[in-house]
Amino acid sequence: MSIISVRDLAVEYDGRRVLDGLNLDIEPGQITVLLGGSGSGKSTLLRQILGLEHPKSGSVSIKGTDITRCSQADLNKVRRSLGVAFQSAALFNSLSLEDNVALTLREHTALAPSIIDLIVWMKLAVVGLADFGKLHPQELSGGMKKRAAVARALAMDPEILVLDEPSAGLDPIVAAELDELILFLKGTFQITALVVTHELDSAFRIADRIAMLFDGRLLAVGTKDEIRANQHPRVRQFLDRVPGSPVHMPALASYLERYVQSKEAKP
Amino acid sequence: MANLLEIAGRETLSQLDYVGSLNIQLWATLRGMRAALPLVGNRHRWRAAVHQMLEIGVDALPMVALMAVCSGFILAMQGASELRRFGALHYVIDLVAVGFTRELGPLLTAIAVSGRSGSAFAAEIGTMKVTEEIDALKVMAFEPVEFVLAPKYLAALVAVPCLSIVAAFFGILAGGLFMFFSTHLGLLLYLRYVLTSIELRDVVAAMIKSLAFATIIAHVGCLEGLRVRGGPDAVGRSTTSAVVRSTFLVIVADAIFTTIFYFVGKA
After folding, report:
1. In A, residues 57-86, which contact B (CB 8 Å cutoff)?
2. Residues A210-230: pLDDT tens digits?
3. Superfamily of domain A1-81+159-170+187-267
């Protein structure tokens, strides 16, 4: 049985359809990668799965709870089984790294402070930041922030880890280190992970399954090999890095000519 | 004509939307405020509220005191220059005492707090929105209204009346110094005159005004922060808007309260 189930999901912004009748199942214990270009609807789908926005129609079920229709209390219960690392890391700048990781433990559990300190140290050690706990987010590099966000996401030992563009904007070495970290977490904690990315190397390195989005629809879902073998033109275009809409020089020249003429016509 | 109607309609809808948002947020915050109370609430929220009280109240103390001293001197000197012609210089004491207790104490404090803390609320919350920290709070199963807004409201409701008392004290003290240097009236005698000219209802009116001003400042500052869409420039705009709107609303509220108290006092 799938741990996350998306059914006929449709999302609109100001009448513009961003997700259109989307269906997706995420299996427990697997790393599922949501792949797609900019504007394909990846982040919108992620926000729906996190319950941050309401869809126009359809449902999102996490561990059997339809989060589009449940109460706030049930939604919060579901959210406690999620660990989320945002694209911008979204660490609380007023708190140290330790306090960022400890926040949910202090607020949602009755653990003794000494136990919380130990857990925080362990989570930071997992991502290689055990010596940086006293620092504040603004004192960290981009890669360290991303790893700190993962540590915070792991604080409550979540069943599902959600990572939004974990390697975006990072150099290849740090990006590769993050990929290894995700694989390590899956191998060690049998965690279910949903990773949103448009980085092909990273996606094919970590994924058990890949779901490819284009224009608010799922083009293909399958294993790495199935996606590699997929012959859908848009999938091929994305995987083979073929430009989508090259600049059409004659059309551009004609547009510029009309623009200049309209400017000259004005007194 | 149609264009004018369209603009008027759009502007009316925008203002109604703003007022509606203010009401929804006020209701949500009042419900969340319990969590920030000592003993019955969450100790982390109470600690955050105390921290905010220190920032709003103690940090603003020198500025508010200085503003009140300057305004006290101005009011006493302007009053004296006219009242002296009628041989009624002693009425300067009533003017300063009643003026600062009923009016200038709460108003000067509100303007100072609006500039310092209202803008800080908008900037802090706006930045949290831009950097996805508000979303992070939601997915960590926290209620942002309870976590971020409630401590600020509680702090403002405690700090602004306290600051108003301080402002009234320093304003009246400045009037006393003026009277000492201009008429050699002893400070103790001056204070005795002050106590006879102030009635309990003046103090009650001042406290009611202060609480209303505190609500407006916290409310507008937080709402402007939550309405931020976009990047850092939007945070700047929301900060400016928070100061302008809250100062404007404070003055409007002051006019309404003063009118009410005037007619209630006459009855």
Report:
1. 76-77, 79-80, 82, 84, 86
2. 999 988 888 889 999 999 888
3. P-loop containing nucleotide triphosphate hydrolases (3.40.50.300)
